[in-house]
Amino acid sequence: MTSDQIVPFASPAAACGAPHIEEPVAYDGILLAGFGGPEGQDDVIPFLRNVTRGRGIPDERLEEVAHHYRHFGGVSPINAQNRALKAALEAELARRSIDLPVYWGNRNWAPMLDDAVKDAAAAGDTNLIAIATSAYSSFSSCRQYREDFARVLTDTGLGGTVTIDKVRQFFDHPGFVQPFVDGVRDGLAELLGDGTAPEQVHVLFSTHSIPTADAERSGPRDQDFGDGGAYAAQHRAVAAVVMAAVAEEIPEAARVGWELVFQSRSGPASQPWLEPDVCDRIAELPASGVTAVAVVPLGFVSDHMEVLWDLDNEAMDAAAEAGLRAVRTRTPGVDPAFVSGLVDLVEERLAGTPVTDRVHLTDLGPWYDVCRPGCCENIRAGFKPAAAGLVP
Fold first, then answer.
1. Is 368 annotated as a binding residue?
2. What's residue 5's pLDDT?
3. Are 263 and 209 in contact (CB under 8 A)?
4. How high is the mean pLDDT of the chain?
5. Where does Fe(2+) bind (predicted)?
6. Are strands 127-132 and 29-34 parallel, antiparallel or unpaired?
7. How far apart are CA 371 and CA 143, in angstroms?
8. 249 labelled as ligand-binding?
9. Residue 76 assigned to a binding site
10. pLDDT (tens digit per residue) in 346-390
């Protein structure tokens, strides 16, 4: 291993830098890493300052986003959802007789990752396997979590005591995909149930938009994933799997059109972000003979604020204005298949499962245990130290 292929803060097995770790690792705790969200009106602006720290965004502009949270009493649903996910993981671990505690910490609001890692260390649990509540590869959905792990271990002085590995990105694991299959199947059954022709129905798979420059840098630098990098490629691959699975249950679904769209962009108009926007695309659909649309929150593990506001409010309003019947399908949440799948990913690392035996539903997987060099660079800030990946 050369000096530029070091994996900092890793277990001895993962420190070798292999893309897939095929030897058992005796983890003694699970770190559930979330985004975090405000839990009251007074929390909203401080939370948004945390989210945007380092970008110099004034409070007046933050208020433009704050009204989404204020609409719901200043309470994001995400912390309650992560409490439920933590409880569901603990129940599934107990069912399988896996004696691993789950420590939950957020990047942007209490409970913070710093406290979760300190709690684990105080309990003597120093070999952690992390699950981030994001399935895809990009700076904000993977590398930023890994950078936060490194920052926490450095700031707390625990870098020489605690190791943090991370389960692979799970975009194409059956546990994550199956709830979307079920949701799209039910949504299309509803839209097609009154005799509407399949050609009049369209499926929009929606995910969070990110800057185009960041998208192009998502995934390993030595692979060409096409426009939108690994981030867009992973979403498109999963959407294709979902539609093929639904068509096996509802044959007419094979004639339903679908595409990947984006939502929730927050950058300046001068900065290119991934397009098309979900609401813009909805407005265009009637011109092509579409009368009904299913909106699928493919980029989200649960009903985050972006789902409740941007899809349930803005996208559904856009559909009504366009005269379209519309349904929004569900997210995985604490679906038993999803919870079981996350524990499968932990067991994969506990057992050192060979890569040839790892389940995955697209040709892009199984994704890497140890992120590759140059993966998911932040174009604005460059590379910072990150756990669970080769430097930089």
1. no
2. 54
3. yes
4. 96
5. 208, 306
6. parallel
7. 9
8. no
9. yes
10. 999 999 999 999 999 999 999 999 999 999 999 888 999 999 999
